[in-house]
Write a structure and sequence with these properties.
InterPro entries: P-loop_NTPase. By secondary structure, the chain is α/β, with parallel strands linked by helices. It has helices at 52-62, 88-102, 116-119, 140-148, 158-174, 192-208; strands spanning 19-21, 24-26, 33-35, 41-45, 68-71, 108-111, 131-137, 183-186.
Length: 218
């Protein structure tokens, strides 16, 4: 079993703001230090309907030797599903979960709608060497068509579709200026296999050092 990285294995204190010094976690109460795997996290983001749920399962098959591909929405429930802007409890829980999974030696590719401001400011950000962001986006009318074609239980009415179209537009406009920048990939006219290949190449390239990494925090 992997212990929650916010909990000191020596005294049991639970840190609200974890500390990392020289690659070690440090307990603010007893000063105990212990090593952990500080791996990069890959956030496959973008608006609903742009292809994350289609790409994810196929990506898991291709990256099975290298990374763990997980779906963000499985935790979108209960007390984590609130109306607070940015949903910090939900985001923090995912970062803690990904950090624990990293202790098994493989990085996580998290498929879900997220932007750097929602992860980078959280205390749990310190668990990761980098967080890389790749957003799947789409032309507005194609995105609208995909969302309205979804099953009724997913509750995509016109108002909710418009909100997602606004996010799609905002993301494309702001992605280059975010910290770190978000890479964009337009899936409007791209076959699924090509989209999966693009994301796979992105992950493998960053892990091998052939793509430029983002700046580490902490």
């Amino acid at each position: 079993m992997v212990l929650d990285l916010k909990i000191c294995p020596a005294c049991g204190d639970r840190a609200e703001r974890p500390r990392v010094e020289s690659g070690l976690l440090v307990c603010a109460v007893c000063a105990h230090q212990w090593p952990f795997r500080r791996l990069p996290l890959f956030a496959l983001t973008g608006p609903s309907g742009a292809g994350k749920s289609t790409v994810g399962p196929r990506l898991a098959e291709r990256l099975g030797d290298l990374a763990l591909v997980v779906e963000q929405d499985v935790l979108w429930t209960g007390a984590l599903r609130d109306d607070v802007p940015g949903h910090p409890a939900f985001r923090s829980t995912w970062l803690r979960m990904a950090a624990m999974l990293h202790q098994n030696g493989r990085p996580v590719v998290l498929c879900g709608t997220v932007a750097p401001p929602e992860f980078e400011r959280l205390p749990e950000r310190v668990f990761f060497s980098d967080i890389h962001y790749l957003a799947l986006v789409s032309e507005p009318e194609a995105l609208r068509k995909r969302l309205l074609a979804r099953p009724a239980w997913r509750e995509w009415d016109e108002e909710r579709v418009e909100e997602m179209l606004e996010f799609n537009e905002w993301l494309q406009a702001e992605a280059p200026s975010m910290d770190p920048p978000v890479e964009l990939f337009d899936t409007t006219h791209i076959p699924v296999d090509d989209a999966v290949g693009h994301v796979e190449k992105w992950v493998r390239g960053l892990l091998s050092g052939t793509q430029r990494p983002s700046t580490a925090v902490g």
